[in-house]
From TrEMBL:
<dbReference type="InterPro" id="IPR016169">
    <property type="entry name" value="FAD-bd_PCMH_sub2"/>
</dbReference>
<dbReference type="InterPro" id="IPR016164">
    <property type="entry name" value="FAD-linked_Oxase-like_C"/>
</dbReference>
<dbReference type="GO" id="GO:0071949">
    <property type="term" value="F:FAD binding"/>
</dbReference>
<keyword id="KW-0274">FAD</keyword>
<dbReference type="InterPro" id="IPR016166">
    <property type="entry name" value="FAD-bd_PCMH"/>
</dbReference>
<keyword id="KW-0285">Flavoprotein</keyword>
<dbReference type="InterPro" id="IPR006094">
    <property type="entry name" value="Oxid_FAD_bind_N"/>
</dbReference>
<dbReference type="InterPro" id="IPR036318">
    <property type="entry name" value="FAD-bd_PCMH-like_sf"/>
</dbReference>
<dbReference type="Pfam" id="PF01565">
    <property type="entry name" value="FAD_binding_4"/>
</dbReference>
<dbReference type="GO" id="GO:0003824">
    <property type="term" value="F:catalytic activity"/>
</dbReference>
<protein>
    <submittedName>
        <fullName>FAD-linked oxidase</fullName>
    </submittedName>
</protein>
<feature type="domain" description="FAD-binding PCMH-type">
    <location>
        <begin position="1"/>
        <end position="176"/>
    </location>
</feature>
Length: 366
């Protein structure tokens, strides 16, 4: 990436002025926790570093909503909201690394609890965005003002900074659960998928249902101090005698596998949950996590296996994107173009007609 200047706005007006007054191509930077994801960023004339664009703007505990600047680390926001017994129901692995609200939305990152709470696409109810000509556009949240009929919050989800500069986010909150429990059972992937199906068919309401390539099925449930022990006991009956509630946090290892090893290429794939176990097995990853209810998996592969993996996922009707690659590795970020490519190009043309934002992120598609 070749750049000539770095701009560090600290409020919306400065973001607007930076976009309006800076000619050429621009990139947006946050905490850097996903800097290597998707397509490699091409040459830009300036970088907008949003590390100083932080903090809560408004918090309405009664309405269970919060608005915050896009550069706010979700970890810091979680600590602030905890005083009110509320949180943003997102548990992506890189939150612990300092990932920001804007970065999480731009990369469409999610975690195991998306099984129940959805992704940020579901949790974000409003955004403020600075478009390529310096226009400040608001969608949803406290001020409902769509731009040319677009739902900006949903368009920005997974856009990798290619449509505009996300400045502010309005989020739907949930109560912090009174108590949580995770049951772990040793099981190969096929067996774990069978057990997961039983859990989903029952009255257990799992918040997360994940398999790891260590050969373990993790089932997380939430509840009250009074009700949770009985629910755990009933769940153990379904999972079998080997199901335990281990000491320590079993999700730490899950997060490690999600991040992947530095010498591996990490691919995020999505498929119908019923097809995911067979697809993950077919890819034969070195390490993996698989959401048996969400249909989302993260697999670590040799870089030279990525192109074939993209093709296999696409043939199964799924989606895939590169999350990280070893330095110097030639691994394609994207597979075959999606059927909605014409729509993606049309949106890009409408919001960023001169192609100012994030060149290369969706290469070779556009």
């Amino acid at each position: 990436m070749t750049t000539t200047t770095t701009l560090r706005p600290t409020d919306l007006a400065e973001v607007r002025d930076a976009v309006r007054d800076t000619p050429g191509r621009l990139a947006v930077a946050g905490a850097g926790t996903a800097a290597g994801w998707a397509g490699e960023l091409g040459a830009v004339d300036a970088v907008l570093d949003l590390a100083g664009l932080t903090g809560v703007i408004t918090h309405n505990p009664g309405d269970m909503t919060v608005s915050a600047h896009a550069g706010t680390p979700l970890r810091a926001l979680t600590e602030e909201l905890a005083e009110h017994g509320q949180h943003v129901s997102l548990d992506a692995a890189r939150i612990a690394d300092g990932a920001t609200l804007g970065g999480l939305l731009a990369t469409a990152d999610s975690g195991p609890s998306s099984l129940v709470y959805g992704t940020l696409r579901d949790l974000v109810i409003g955004v403020t965005v600075v478009l390529a000509d310096g226009t400040v556009a608001r969608s949803g949240g406290h001020v409902i003002k769509n731009v040319a009929g677009y739902d900006l919050a949903k368009l920005l989800h997974g856009s990798y900074g290619t449509l505009g500069v996300l400045a502010e986010v309005v989020l739907r909150l949930h109560p912090v659960p009174k108590r949580t429990a995770t049951l772990v059972v040793d099981a190969p992937l096929a067996r774990a998928a069978e057990l997961a199906a039983r859990v989903l068919e029952g009255p257990f309401e799992p918040v997360a249902l994940e398999w790891t390539s260590d050969g373990r099925l993790l089932v997380r449930i939430e509840g009250t101090d009074e009700a949770l022990p009985a629910r755990v006991a009933r769940l153990q009956e379904v999972l079998g005698a080997g199901a335990t509630t281990p000491e320590g946090d079993p999700w730490t290892r899950h997060a490690e596998l999600t991040r992947g090893a530095p010498d591996a290429a990490v691919l995020r794939i999505g498929a119908r949950p019923s097809l995911l176990p067979a697809l993950v097995s077919e890819l034969a990853p070195d390490a993996a996590t698989a959401g048996l209810g969400t249909g989302v998996a993260t697999v670590s592969l040799p870089p030279d296996a990525v192109a074939d993996a993209h093709t296999r996922v696409h043939a199964a009707g799924g989606t895939s994107q590169l999350r990280s690659r070893p330095v110097g590795a030639d691994a394609p970020a994207w597979g075959p173009p999606p059927s909605a490519l014409a729509v993606l190009r049309a949106v890009k043309t409408a919001l960023d007609p001169d192609g100012r934002f994030g060149p290369g992120r969706f290469s070779p598609w556009m």
